[in-house]
Design goal:
6 helices; 0% strand; mainly alpha
């Protein structure tokens, strides 16, 4: 998320981008890439130094289409009536089954 914020400084990543959507996309994509790539294809990522990896991460973060991962705002949840079971004792399923036998 920090890389996306750095790559898109004009956007408020925390408020606009869904963490869950990002995690799902990365997990799905990573699993698919692992199916088709051999170990040797990961070598450039293993041997790169910190500045090269940072540059690559920022470059990739800049290519992310933020609209694809837009956070969905949920409305207010309506409150439920609180006195629905007032005066009625709770009976567990186990007790009801015991009483039937």
């Amino acid at each position: 998320m920090a890389a996306m914020q750095a790559a898109h400084p004009d956007k408020d990543i925390h408020d606009e981008v869904s963490d869950d959507c990002i995690v799902e996309e990365i997990t799905t994509t990573f699993n698919g890439i692992n199916l088709i790539l051999e170990k040797e294809n990961w070598t450039p990522f293993v041997i790169c130094n910190n500045s090269e990896c940072s540059r690559l991460i920022l470059e990739l973060a800049g290519k992310i289409d933020l609209k694809k991962f837009k956070k969905h705002k949920h409305g207010v949840t309506p409150s439920l009536p609180k006195d629905e079971h007032k005066g009625k004792p709770h009976l567990s399923t186990a007790r009801l089954l015991y009483l039937c036998n």
